Amino acid sequence: SVKSEAARYAECVATLGQRVTIGKSGIHGWGAFAKRRHAEHDMVIEYVGELVRPSVSDLREARCYDDMVGAGTYVFRLNKALCVDATRAGNLAHMLNHSCDPNCFSRTIRVVDHVIIFAKKDIEVAEELTYDYRFCGEEQLPCNCGAANCRGRVNEKPPEGQVLARRSELKPYRPPRKPPQLATQQPQ
């Protein structure tokens, strides 16, 4: 039987720990990795954070987050009235690194009005989860994704009429004393 979007969302939230983990990334610092296979269009993870108005997000970025250059902010525009800011509070979704050839994409689902990261293509166990940040802004943020089609920078001009959050890049992750091992890695 075909599951409703609401049922798929509930399953996505309930099984997060069984499906996604963190580990050392070849792209940038730490990243999120698949603990199990994800088929194309699977809901992989909800992007969780504080709901704020765009004006609050812009003010935070101007006053606080700009001092964190290289440390990063995590703001998704949910709609014209709200943003999801995962800079101070969030889940593993903020660990997804950028790739110019990503295996995931984001979409707002109307059932719960939340940002969900979906599998853009089939994702295998231990594969790093990535999406194209597509930030707009004047600051040119270098890209280290290594994809054959790499643009050389994370940000770009937004397509005409599309609303994107202003700027973001990765903040430092404070790993636990012993980094978690992926299921396919042998303990050292």
UniProtKB/TrEMBL annotation:
Key words of the record: Chromatin regulator, Methyltransferase, Nucleus, S-adenosyl-L-methionine, Transferase
A biological process term (GO) from this entry: methylation
Domain of life: Eukaryota
Keyword Translocase on entry: no
GO cellular component: Set1C/COMPASS complex
Domain Post-SET positions: 139-155
Disordered: annotated span: 165-188
Positions of the SET domain: 18-134
Main localization of the protein described in the UniProt heading: nucleus
Catalytic reaction list: N(6),N(6)-dimethyl-L-lysyl(4)-[histone H3] + S-adenosyl-L-methionine = N(6),N(6),N(6)-trimethyl-L-lysyl(4)-[histone H3] + S-adenosyl-L-homocysteine + H(+); N(6)-methyl-L-lysyl(4)-[histone H3] + S-adenosyl-L-methionine = N(6),N(6)-dimethyl-L-lysyl(4)-[histone H3] + S-adenosyl-L-homocysteine + H(+); L-lysyl(4)-[histone H3] + 3 S-adenosyl-L-methionine = N(6),N(6),N(6)-trimethyl-L-lysyl(4)-[histone H3] + 3 S-adenosyl-L-homocysteine + 3 H(+)
Keyword Aminoacyl-tRNA synthetase: no
UniProt EC number: 2.1.1.354
Protein name: [histone H3]-lysine(4) N-trimethyltransferase
Organism of origin: Chlorella variabilis
Upper classification of the organism: Eukaryota, Viridiplantae, Chlorophyta, core chlorophytes, Trebouxiophyceae
